[in-house]
Amino acid sequence: MAYGAPVPGTLPDASAHPELPGGPPAPTGVRRAVPMARRKADDDGGPVPMPGGDPESVVEVRRSARRRRTVTAYRESGRTVVLIPAAFSPAEERRWVAQMVAKLQTREERRRRSLGGDDELMLRARALSAAHLDGLAEPASVRWVDNQQRRWGSCTPADRSIRLSSRLRSMPEYVVDYVLVHELVHLLEPGHDERFWALVARYPRAERARGFLEGVELANTAEAAGGDAADVVD
């Protein structure tokens, strides 16, 4: 889930700013991965107080000439990606990276508290089955997983297990519920035939949730040149 923010004011002249320590500013389209603990807060070299304090966490900064006034941050493959305008100075980059990472982590923590762990996820799945599928979909296990980077959720009908990508924790609850319903229906219909989609459509916000996920996928694809294929719900 991307977290974006408008950048107030007009963009500076990139040529008027000094070079990054150790080399010139990254050109448009270049990706640079740097450990969070090494990020600098200002020109005097003070460390950025990254929320969570995990020195192994990595931020990847991507500059884009198409961006003019917005900054976006999201999780991708175990790292935080921050998309910034190409004209940003090194100081602006450091400031916005720190700010966006903090906002992203705060939002994710709030969502974690709301959605809970695997036990709460199982209760949520059972409630959705009762409300929209006449209680016919009975999962044996429902859990969060961190290793699904190209799928929002998955289901194994043979053992009635459902897994949801932990990336969903930062998304609205109705989107999480939609993915749960999608996977619950797979316990009744393994394929994606007409009956499958008719059952999924019993969830009142299915169309809106699909649109939300499609928007996330399109944004990630457009911003991450050469990145992985779009996320899918399987």
Largest sheet: 5 strands, mixed
CATH architecture classification of the largest domain: 2-Layer Sandwich
The whole-number mean of residue pLDDT values reads 74
In DSSP terms (H or I, runs of 4 or more residues), the helix count works out at 5
CATH topology of the largest domain: the name is Zincin-like
* Gyration radius, rounded: 20 Å
* Order of neighbouring strands in the sheet with most strands: 1-4-5-3-2
How would you describe the shape?
Answer: elongated
Strand percentage lies at 15-25%
Which parts are unreliable, with pLDDT below 50 for 5 consecutive residues or more? 1-28, 33-56, 225-231
Overall SS class: alpha/beta
Helix content: 25-40%
* CATH homology superfamily of the largest domain: Metalloproteases ("zincins"), catalytic domain
Count of separate structural domains: 2
What does this structure look like?
The protein has 234 residues and is an alpha/beta fold. It folds into two domains: 3-113, no CATH class; 116-233, Metalloproteases ("zincins"), catalytic domain (Zincin-like). It has five helices and nine strands. The strands form two sheets. The chain has a five-stranded mixed β-sheet, covered by helices on one side. A four-stranded mixed β-sheet has the order 6-8-7-9. A hairpin with a 2-residue loop joins strand 4 and strand 5 (79-85). The two termini are 18 Å apart.
Features:
234 residues; alpha/beta; Zincin-like; 2 domains; five-stranded mixed sheet; 5 helices; 9 strands; 34% helix; disordered N terminus
